[in-house]
Each structure stands twice: as structure tokens, then as C-alpha cells.
Design goal:
It contains three helices and six strands. It is of the alpha+beta class and about 180 residues long. It has a single domain, classed as Nuclear Transport Factor 2, Chain: A (Roll). A six-stranded mixed sheet has the order 2-1-6-5-4-3. The protein starts with a helix and ends in a 40-residue tail after the last strand.
């Protein structure tokens, strides 16, 4: 018979595992939007595989390949995790995370919004969750007029930076004058 304390302990562990898994998936997306090779790598087990369409990337090669693929065509990306389902099976997790990606083309001719899913298998080793296998889907896309970011309505907003110079890395986070930082 399970005691109330044992039940609560198991429940808290389940919630912690789910949060750690979600954090790993979100952190990996954020790292790709900053072209942060170290942070991308920290989300994958060394023998992991990423399946992006026709390409299968071994985890040790994935950070550099993902960054090069993005940099070849785009000046900025924004990966947004929305719906997230997680099925736990001991130290294995099966996840389906919907992703909405904004892709700003280098030539500034358009911004593409791509909708898809990450089908992930993660494993927990020594208390840490990381991705072992990722399969990506593309469900639909839409091309948008990118000119709005050059309008007066956006003037003064911070721009994204594909490096650790992005303001999201700053600690502490403090407000700055509109003359500071890279801005629209």
C-alpha cells in the first residue's frame, strides 16, 4: 500500500521530469535561434540523431550543421514551442511538440512561417534529460511581407543577435536607453 508521502514524492518527481523535459526542448530551440553551439549540444546525448527532412544529423555534428543551414538562407530564426505532449516510461520520454518557426530570409524578400512538430525520444541519465532522437514534420508554411520590422511601429525594439551577444544572455537584465543595443 502506498503511503501519502510516497504518492506525493512520486507525483513531484513526475512533475519535475516533465518540466525538465520541456525545458530541454525549449532550450534547444532557443539555442538554435542564438546559434549557440554549446547550448544546442547540451540538449543531446552523444549518440543522438536529428532527422530534418532528408537529412539525418548525428548529435555531435548537429549544432554546426543546423547553424550553417540556417545561416545559408536566413538572417534570423524564431522557433516557438506551443502544444507539448509528454509520455513518460521510466527513464524514457516520448514527446510531441508543436513548433512554429519564423524564418527571415537573408535577402529580406519575405519571412516564412513554418508550422510543424518535433517527435522526440528523450532519455534520463544520471538525473539529466536529453534528446536521443528527433524527427521533424512540416505541416504547412506561409510567406509574409517582412517590411513591417522596418516601420516606425518597430523602431527602437531590440533586434535578435545570432550569438551570445544577444541581450537574452545578459545578467542582470536591466532596461537600457534606446541608444544602447542593436535595434531596429
Amino acid at each position: 500500500m502506498t503511503t501519502e508521502l510516497e504518492y506525493l514524492k512520486a507525483t513531484v518527481q513526475n512533475l519535475k521530469d516533465r518540466q525538465d523535459i520541456h525545458d530541454c526542448i525549449v532550450r534547444e530551440s532557443r539555442a538554435r535561434d542564438r546559434q549557440d553551439v554549446d547550448q544546442i549540444a547540451s540538449c543531446w546525448w552523444p549518440e543522438g540523431i536529428d532527422e530534418h527532412g532528408a537529412f539525418h544529423h548525428p548529435a555531435p555534428l548537429y549544432p554546426e550543421r543546423a547553424n550553417a543551414g540556417h545561416a545559408k538562407f536566413f538572417r534570423a530564426t524564431s522557433h516557438n514551442i506551443t502544444n507539448h505532449l509528454c509520455e513518460l516510461d521510466g527513464d524514457t520520454a516520448y514527446c510531441e511538440s508543436y513548433v512554429m518557426g519564423g524564418l527571415a530570409w537573408k535577402d529580406e524578400s519575405k519571412t516564412t512561417i513554418a508550422l510543424g512538430r518535433y517527435l522526440d525520444q528523450l532519455e534520463k541519465r544520471n538525473g539529466e534529460w536529453r534528446i536521443l532522437t528527433r524527427r521533424c514534420t512540416i505541416e504547412m508554411t506561409a510567406d509574409c511581407d517582412p517590411s513591417w520590422v522596418h516601420s516606425d511601429a518597430v523602431k527602437g525594439f531590440l533586434k535578435p543577435i545570432w550569438s551570445k551577444d544577444d541581450p537574452s544572455y545578459e545578467r542582470p537584465i536591466v532596461a537600457k536607453t534606446t541608444e544602447q543595443g542593436v535595434r531596429w
